[in-house]
Write a structure and sequence with these properties.
By secondary structure, the chain is mainly β. It has a single domain, classed as Protein of unknown function DUF192 (Jelly Rolls). It contains 2 helices and 7 strands; from the N terminus they run βαββββββα.
Length: 102
């Protein structure tokens, strides 16, 4: 597996902006939103996959989202946004790093 890149959005401003200013994302890029259980794609120009995880970085749910949608996953400790073609089975490679940020 090609090296995965994890970017963490920590501040309220970073979380609010999210991926809004991006024109595209790579299939190996992941964007972690600690403490977030609701994601929206209002104003985005491309679809994304959202992986909701618990405090042990175990997957709770996976949602494919088109621009203009909103989804809430009660009980999620974080949301991870990624390319729709990202293979979620590869998330285990970053599990320890994700747990440290939660």
């Amino acid at each position: 597996m090609k090296d995965l890149k994890l970017e963490v959005f920590k501040t309220p401003l970073e979380k609010r902006r999210g991926l809004l200013n991006r024109k595209k994302i790579g299939v190996h890029e992941l964007f972690l939103f600690p403490g977030v259980n609701t994601i929206h794609t209002h104003g985005m120009k491309f679809p994304i996959k959202v992986i909701f995880v618990d405090s042990k970085a175990d997957i709770i749910s996976i949602v494919l989202m088109k621009p203009g949608q909103e989804y809430k996953e009660p009980g999620a400790a974080a949301a991870i946004e990624c390319h729709p073609f990202f293979n979620s089975a590869n998330l285990h490679e970053l599990k320890e790093k994700i747990i440290k940020t939660l």
